[in-house]
Amino acid sequence: MLQAAPRQPSMRQAMNPVSDPDPTLPPYARVKAHLKDGLAGGRWAPGARMPSEAELVAQFGLSRMTVNRALRELQAEGLLERRQGAGTYATALHRVASTLTIRDLHEEIAARGHRHSAVVDLQRAESAPPALAAQLGLEPGAAVFHTRIAHLENGVPLQCEDRYVNPACAPDYLAQDYTRTTPTHYLLAVAPLWEAQYLIEAGRPTADEARLLGVAHTEPCLVVVRRTQSRGVPITLARLVHPGMRYTIAGSFTP
Amino acid sequence: MLQAAPRQPSMRQAMNPVSDPDPTLPPYARVKAHLKDGLAGGRWAPGARMPSEAELVAQFGLSRMTVNRALRELQAEGLLERRQGAGTYATALHRVASTLTIRDLHEEIAARGHRHSAVVDLQRAESAPPALAAQLGLEPGAAVFHTRIAHLENGVPLQCEDRYVNPACAPDYLAQDYTRTTPTHYLLAVAPLWEAQYLIEAGRPTADEARLLGVAHTEPCLVVVRRTQSRGVPITLARLVHPGMRYTIAGSFTP
DNA sequence: TAGTGGTCTAGACCACAGC
DNA sequence: CTGTGGTCTAGACCACTAC
Q1: Which CATH fold topology does B12-90 show?
Q2: Closest residue (CA to C1') to nucleotide C13 in the complex
Q3: Which residue is nearest to nucleotide D17 (CA to C1')?
Q4: Which string of DSSP letters, residue by residue, matches A135-168?
Q5: Predicted pLDDT of residue B2
Q6: pTM, two decimal places
């Protein structure tokens, strides 16, 4: 039903790129559209060899740079694999790489037109136990900053944020008023955020978290653990706990 | 090579780009590295105006196309915003766009060197209730294919996959042996996967799911709901339930 | 109008893969 | 060796923005 009409390439279709996309598109975009259509329509199976740059140059009457751009962008989008000297291939595409956007919670709530507020449960320096010290690149027992903050949307607890911060990166971290700004916002201002790793899992809240979120400690929660570095220097380790019924991470994938 | 020698922008150099990245990198990559370093180091604040293409051409002694490529790629990576006629700006970057990869579970398990097996609990055609029909672009009451399969890693249940499939897209879906292939794998072969949206949340398993996963129905589970279309035609709607303590989604962000 | 980005070209040299 | 992709150039024309 999709790859409806065409087929029976009989004579290799001679010319005509089968798809004749919007002629107002710039040429490189037309090449991309042509290749995407072909991939979507099964003209090239996963893993199959794609036309070479030279072939596309001849077929479309464009310069090689233009064709190269189209192919390079499709590669960046994960649709093609290219190997110097070997050729261009359709990706097996048994993976779906998707963009997941994690925004500052304050902005996320504001974007919904709702009111964000915060309850600061804890804001102090502590001595880092070995495991934590290792995560933040500190000596065991060194001072770390620790905050625990509940974030509310229109008065309803949405997230409990347990965060440890490397003092070297944000010496004034403890001096901020986190009912007026968020740790994320402050840390982004202090040091642009350059690398992050995260884990997403389901779990139960700790007693503290259950208290701050106003849920039973048996309530399933979505837990995001995120570690952030800037230029290789660990900045912060955060555990973000969301009541399962109140929070969802959404994403999409559109090549 | 060609543009080999140049450089020595005479006075310009004065302030030396601060960063003098790996000289073995291709020129466009050096420009990218220079700009990334500057952004990471706070040389340009979020929202600040970046050097124009012409300025970078003068500074690096490169052609405009090369500089343009560096800027275009940084834009694609979300680090820069560009407006024709206006200029190039550092993104406010109060968002962290991260790559989340969802792979076929069979491949994921195989990649860990473990053994994947599946228990097919249900495999039949059903009549689509209105809500489901709407999601799949069908008439209410139309036939849909429904499978419920537990996926095991070395014999331990890891995921319960409840899946509805648009029969028009995969007429032979019910004829497959899902102890030998996975629905994901089969559907990818039938119709390349072109758009997907998903939700990730924490919840409790249904009674069926708890039974198949061998967990209590109070156990927190990570639930991924994914909807997939190919060329705008809905293909499948899947609910993937993972026991919270056994499954984690990991991702990273490294601009 | 001047500056900016968006795009294209027709060549070129190189590194690498496969025969 | 040939064919492939990786990259660069020095111009060019255009559309848009801001003044």
Answers
A1: Arc Repressor Mutant, subunit A (1.10.10)
A2: B1
A3: B85
A4: HHT--TT-EEEEEEEEEEETTEEEEEEEEEE-TT
A5: 30
A6: 0.73
